[in-house]
């Protein structure tokens, strides 16, 4: 629209800029999202605030309209690409905290599921908190989780699922780990929009994490507890 072409992002107030970024994310405008992220950072916003108050909040609106049949897969993919472009700018900043190494996490989205924005965000925040993160991507079968956990000598397994049809696969992974006698060697955290505490408990995970910040706090608490019990891996 001609009106939109006239908008100069750097001239907007913080509130107007964030509102405009939400519109731009909705419209899948990658370049504008990158520009908006950079402007907020230049104005002294923390990377975490840019992430949560502009990008995640914007993606929540996209989610609602996707659910309600107002947006469709191609539009949501564009929005996701714009979101990822913004996250790519924030990633090194979030990881740059100089926090002491806390442990190693293998994280991946389960088999049948290709949603990766939330998982990527958890990985970024975990790195920022001092964890080493091995991201095995999307659509992971149980074999991939197990092979990577063993090869990496990890402390934590993180699994993500965004679909009600794929979340039961987390139990397949945990049950297989139990069968192999390796379940108790790892802290298992699960997350994703359709999950809840009860589901996490029912499938035998150590904890369900509502969001990336909770994942970080939970991982820190459980790693500390494991260290105190003297059973943590080096
Ligand atoms: Co999808 N999709 N999608 N989608 N999609 C949902 C999940 C949906 C809720 C939309 C809706 O109807 N409202 C719905 C699921 C319904 C259900 O199962 N009950 C849905 C559907 C139906 C589908 C398809 C089946 C659509 C179709 O093809 N007809 C299809 C499935 C494909 C597949 O996986 N096999 C599909 C496809 C897609 C796109 C490819 C278009 C795209 C994904 C792009 C990508 O990820 N690269 C997409 C998107 C973007 C969404 C929504 C709109 C947004 C998800 C997102 O990125 N949110 C989503 C709607 C929604 O969730 N409200 C939707 C932002 C992100 C920051 O939040 O992922 O929740 P989230 O992560 C949070 C927490 O959940 C938590 O921390 C994160 C950060 O705070 N967390 C963890 C997540 N993982 C964690 C792991 C942890 C800890 C915490 O480990 C320790």
From TrEMBL:
Gene Ontology CC entries for this record: cytosol
Presence of the UniProt keyword Metal-binding in the record: yes
Ranges in coiled-coil conformation: none
Entries under CDD domains matching the protein: corrinoid_protein_B12-BD
Domain B12-binding N-terminal, first and last residues per copy: 8-102
Record keywords, A-Z: Cobalt, Metal-binding
Residues annotated as domain B12-binding: 102-233
Pfam families per the UniProt record, alphabetical: B12-binding, B12-binding_2
A GO MF term: metal ion binding
Gene Ontology BP annotations: homocysteine metabolic process; tetrahydrofolate metabolic process
Family the UniProt entry places it in: Belongs to the methylamine corrinoid protein family.
Name the record gives this protein: Cobalamin-binding protein
Organism: Pararhodobacter marinus
């Amino acid at each position: 629209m001609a009106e939109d072409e006239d908008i100069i992002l750097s001239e907007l107030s913080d509130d107007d800029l964030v509102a405009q970024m939400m519109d731009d994310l909705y419209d899948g405008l990658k370049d504008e999202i990158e520009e908006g992220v950079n402007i907020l950072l230049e104005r002294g916003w923390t990377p975490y605030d840019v992430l949560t108050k502009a990008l995640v909040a914007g993606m929540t609106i996209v989610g609602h309209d996707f659910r309600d049949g107002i947006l469709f897969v191609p539009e949501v993919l564009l929005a996701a690409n714009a979101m990822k472009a913004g996250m790519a700018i924030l990633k090194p900043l979030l990881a740059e905290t100089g926090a002491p190494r806390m442990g190693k996490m293998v994280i991946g989205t389960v088999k049948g599921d290709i949603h990766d924005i939330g998982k990527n965000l958890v990985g970024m925040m975990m790195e920022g908190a001092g964890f080493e993160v091995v991201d095995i991507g999307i659509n992971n079968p149980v074999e991939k989780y197990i092979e990577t956990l063993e090869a990496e000598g990890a402390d934590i397994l993180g699994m993500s699922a965004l679909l009600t049809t794929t979340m039961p696969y987390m139990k397949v992974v945990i049950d297989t780990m139990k069968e192999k006698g390796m379940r108790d060697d790892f802290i298992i955290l699960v997350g994703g929009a359709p999950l809840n505490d009860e589901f996490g408990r029912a499938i035998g995970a150590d904890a369900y994490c509502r969001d990336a910040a909770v994942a970080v706090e939970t991982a820190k608490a459980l790693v500390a507890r494991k260290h105190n019990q003297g059973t943590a891996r080096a």
